[in-house]
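Appendix B, record 7
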Amino acid sequence: MNDVLFAAVFGVCVLFLIVCFGIFLRFFPLWIQSKMAGAGVGILDLVGMTFRKVNPDVIIRAKIMTVQAGLDDKVMTTKSLEAHYLSGGNVLAVVRALIAANKAKLLDLDYPLATAIDLAGRNVLDAVQTSVYPKVIDCPTPSKGKVTLDGVAKNGIQLKVKARVTVRTNLKQLIGGATEDTIIARVGEGIISAIGSAETHSEVLENPDRISKTVLERRLDSETAFEIVSVDIADIDVSENIGARLQADQAEADTRVARAKAEGRRALAVAAEQENLAKIEESRAKVVAAEAEVPLAISEAISSGKMGIMDYYRLKNIQSDTEMRGSIAKGMPVSSASAAKT
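Structure tokens (predicted):
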């Protein structure tokens, strides 16, 4: 019984020594690095990171970088670095960004703000670098298919403009601030508005800086993640006379409208003419109907004794005489007919 107990205790001790030796082999190099750099991370901390599913290599590197850069070790503790790692953040990028900000004397960035920016999905290291070294953005962006900004002055001349916007990152507004696309859109709108407010295109060509001043005065970088440093006009080209083309198009449209109205009046005139012709034919029909009633009236007058036979022949002679004179008048020239009347 004692032999079995001794063997069990001996086995447990051997297993414990094997586990300790394995832990020593696994974490001893990291512990040595931490000890030599003064990072203050012990063996038990490294073992605990393994159980918490934290990569010890990342934490040790971050702590060593923090200590070597002289950052505030009270804020960037091992626990805070582990918490940011477990939250899905990029610990090394945050530490590098803080080191760069510290070297550049940027007091706007601290560890809580850096971790918040990183967790928001922004590249905090790139933001710091852009804040130190301003970034130049082409306006408009050639990769999106538009090469120039087209504006029209009040005299109708179109100008094609290329601009370059120099921006630096606004770290305080990086979380929730608008991106580069908003800056490009606002600057493009401002440039087009500035060109449109010029009386002539010559004013813009003579003083391109009036566009820059107008754009900068409008504070287009508000509520964005950037601060506009300058707006520089890279190129201005004179394009076509949009005003003249619009006037020509308007004149053509007016001509078409006038033609349509004239055609409408012509159609009304034709309709009125046809209506008058119909009225004439109607009048002729009435005349023919009235002439048809004359013989009946004469017959009735003779029957009733109101008109004698001699009266009838006398009427016929008058009609014949009138028809003969009409025939003679139709066959004579105008001057002869006038003389005959005289």
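Remarks on this record: The longest helix spans residues 242-303. The domain at 135-243 is CATH 3.30.479.30 (Tetrahydropterin Synthase; Chain A).
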